[in-house]
Write a structure and sequence with these properties.
By secondary structure, the chain is an alpha/beta fold. The protein folds into 3 domains: 7-138, Response regulator (Rossmann fold, 3-Layer(aba) Sandwich), CATH 3.40.50; 149-315, Rossmann fold, CATH 3.40.50.300; 320-366, no CATH class. Helix content is 46%, strand content 16%. It contains 15 helices and 14 strands. The protein has helices at 15-27, 38-47, 64-74, 89-97, 110-142, 151-163, 180-189, 208-216, 233-236, 252-264, 290-295, 301-307, 324-338, 348-356, 362-366; strands spanning 7-11, 31-35, 52-56, 79-84, 102-105, 170-173, 198-202, 217-218, 230-231, 241-245, 266-267, 276-277, 281-286, 310-313. The strands form 4 sheets. Strands 2-1-3-4-5 form a 5-stranded parallel sheet, sandwiched between helices. It has a 5-stranded parallel sheet with strand order 7-10-13-6-14. Helix 1 (15-27) links the parallel strand 1 and strand 2. The protein is elongated and about 85 Å long.
């Protein structure tokens, strides 16, 4: 038995049979809730979770098949056992085809009830454990590998782990090539949104009109050549994370539109009149001094505060030279595999020169 009490819903319209089942299962250590009708069972399935449902097949208004169908719809990992008279065994077999775990024919033996209930709950536990393991492995495999053992990188990794589970906006600051997108991906992949899309968008690569079209999409006929509706990146990323790289280069007029999206959690397609709800987490990045830009009127103060809920400062590579040997070997291994070369070492003199270089292009230049 697991450390917590598993909960069983018993649905049986015969009073004596229902009380007997409840008594037997409680003695086995389960929490048992019993009802006398399928109608009440459906109400309970709507309001709470069960590990196992044991239901009579033949009942008025809502029968066992109705309970099975609703259970699989609302709680797909909850196992269902059918109780049936000999005359309805064929129907019980049909129920198993529809997803029931097993059936128990009346008159049933107590040991049979205990055994089948125990086996059904073991199956549920294993399914949930496998699901959790697959989810964990998927997340582990998707977390970007941030190389480094310097105190700066250790501190950044600690911050990533702390903020990833929340839904707050993040601003990543750092010179070009320091790994801002890698950090954004790590936050996304360690967050509850990891199964949804991570969309990266460079704000310095588009005019205001093209930027609006890319982020918000457009309606059919919005402009010449718009022959069909085009969803924007915000729609594509629904439920996921949008990474706005070089946010400091975003035009002021576009900053107003982005601010509205963050505040109202909705946007209009280009040429559209119907607001489209959006649920995404925003992570922004820039190499610019946004505080200075705000003072100079180049960046909106209200947008700055909306984005700058949590700040991560990425140090230049020259300030964490202890990480250079690790990064060199990491990239060397990657390139050797890609080019099918057997190169694993760097001469001492070469490594010394690499560590002494200033790396104006940071990690990207080293790679």
């Amino acid at each position: 038995m697991p450390p917590y009490k598993e909960t069983i819903l018993v649905v049986e319209d015969e009073d004596i049979a229902r009380k007997n089942l409840e008594y037997i299962l409680k003695k086995e250590g389960y929490e048992v809730i019993s009802v006398e009708s399928g109608v009440k069972a459906l109400e309970l399935l709507e309001s709470r979770t069960f590990d196992l449902v044991i239901t009579d097949l033949k009942m008025e208004k809502v029968d066992g098949m109705g309970v099975l169908e609703k259970s699989k719809e609302l709680q797909p990992f909850t196992e269902v056992i059918m109780i049936t008279g000999y005359a309805t065994v064929d129907s019980a077999v049909e129920a198993m085809k529809e997803g029931a775990y097993h059936y128990i024919a009346k008159p049933y033996k107590l040991d049979e009830v205990r055994r089948i209930s125990r086996e059904a709950l073991i199956k549920r536990r294993l399914r949930l454990e496998n699901l959790e393991l697959r989810s964990f492995l998927k997340r582990f495999q998707q977390v970007p590998f941030i190389v480094g053992r310097s105190k700066e990188i250790k501190s950044i990794m600690k911050t990533i782990r702390q903020i990833a589970p929340s839904d707050t906006n993040v601003l990543i600051l750092g010179e070009s090539g320091t790994g801002k997108e890698l950090v954004a991906k790590a936050i996304h992949n360690l967050s509850p949104r990891f199964e949804k899309k991570f969309i990266a968008f460079n704000c310095g690569s588009f005019t205001e009109e093209l930027m609006a079209n890319e982020l918000f999409g457009h309606e059919k006929g919005a402009f010449t050549g718009a022959t069909q509706v085009k969803p924007g990146l915000l729609e594509v990323a629904q439920g996921g994370t949008v990474f706005l790289d070089e946010i400091g280069d975003m035009p002021l007029a576009m900053q107003v539109k982005l601010l509205r999206v963050i505040q109202e959690k909705e946007f209009l397609r280009v040429g559209g009149v119907k607001p489209i709800p959006v649920d995404v987490r925003f992570i922004a990045a820039t190499h610019r001094d946004l505080k200075d830009d705000v003072e100079k009127g180049l960046f909106r103060q209200d947008l700055y505060y909306r984005l700058n809920v949590i700040t991560i400062n990425l140090p230049p590579l020259a300030s964490r030279t202890d990480d250079i040997p690790l990064l060199v070997h990491h990239f060397l291994s990657q390139k050797s595999q890609a080019m099918k070369k057997d190169i694993h070492e760097v001469e001492r003199e070469a490594m010394d020169l690499l560590c002494q270089y200033s790396w104006p292009g940071n990690v990207r230049e080293l790679e």
